[in-house]
Each structure stands twice: as C-alpha cells, then as structure tokens.
C-alpha cells in the first residue's frame, strides 16, 4: 500500500517541496487507494496547533507511510527535533524515503514498537521533555502509551498531545482515562474520517496539567 503511494508521489510531486508531496498523497488516497493518513482536513488542525505551540521536541507515534511526518516537519520551528516511531519495517522504509524526498534529513525515524521505545527516549535520545505528541498508531496502544508517557517524566505542564481517530475506529478506554484522570485539559475536534464524507470521526487535543 505504502509502496504504491510512494511510486505515485515520486512521479507526481516535486522533490524538496513538502506541500507538493502532501498534495500528491491526498490525490492518491482520495481517488485511488484509501490510506489512513490524517488527511488534509484534520491535517489543518494539526498544522494550526503546531504553529501555535512552536514545539521544540515532537514525538510521532505511527509514521505509517510518512505523510503525517512530513506534515509535522514542515510546521516546526528552526532547531526543533522530530522523533517518529513506526513498528512496521516495510512502512518505515517507505516513510524514510518520503521524509528524505521532502527534504527533511534531520528527523529521527525509530523502527520499533512504541511500548519499547517510549521508556528509552530519555536514555537513548537524551530527551528531557516532549512539547508535542501526535498519536496515530494502533488505537489499542493509545491508553498504555499515554500512561507510559505520564510515568516517564517526559510530559511537562503545557505539553500537548493530539490523538487521531478517537471516535472512528475509536479509542474508548483512552477517552475514559482523559475524563477520569484529572491530568489534562482536553477537547475533541470533530471531523469526518480522512478521505471520506460520511463517517464521523474526531481528534482529541490534550494539554497536560501535571499531577495535582
């Protein structure tokens, strides 16, 4: 799936132009083959939050084919670091090519399951704080990964987490934790599923308040 999208992007996008690469992806995903990228509509919410927050350390859980990685990287301030985790080796190989095609050579792509990487971010990558986390991997991993982040000490007051597809296919345990934990100010950005018109979905925006 990612390989076919990559071949299309390679022949229809301009190397070094992130906007052109995202547009080619969007054409492929809306007209030829559905891929669960964040897509252009929900992508604009991600863009806006990144511009408002200007995060210097960003963690992406689920790089998939590299679409959201490019979308995040193009919105970051100078000197920011993006760490993207993708457990599927084939997808990661394509994501790496897409990221490089867009001209982002400094971003770190980590090919391993998120539950193995998150506990090692501090020791392996000298990370002390995450300003922004984007979740778009397996929905069943949302809650355990969030709890691992909470216990890691990497979330500081004001750290933002944006989680896609919390309504469809849905992450009910994750949403229940948000309501009950008291650790976050949070809201749902309602939208439709990427590249579709009728399926209702949404993204959860969380701002970490720290342990009370």
Automatic annotation (TrEMBL):
A Pfam short name: Methyltransf_3
PROSITE patterns in the cross-refs: SAM_OMT_I
Cellular localisation: Endoplasmic reticulum
One GO MF term: catechol O-methyltransferase activity
Reaction catalysis annotation: a catechol + S-adenosyl-L-methionine = a guaiacol + S-adenosyl-L-homocysteine + H(+)
UniProt-listed GO biological process terms: catecholamine catabolic process; developmental process; dopamine metabolic process; methylation; sensory perception of sound
The protein's Enzyme Commission number: 2.1.1.6
Enzyme class: transferase
One GO cellular component term: endoplasmic reticulum
Protein keywords: Catecholamine metabolism, Endoplasmic reticulum, Hearing, Methyltransferase, Neurotransmitter degradation, S-adenosyl-L-methionine, Transferase
Family: Belongs to the class I-like SAM-binding methyltransferase superfamily. Cation-dependent O-methyltransferase family.
Name by which UniProt lists this protein: catechol O-methyltransferase
Organism: Amphiprion ocellaris (Clown anemonefish)
Organism ancestry: Eukaryota, Metazoa, Chordata, Craniata, Vertebrata
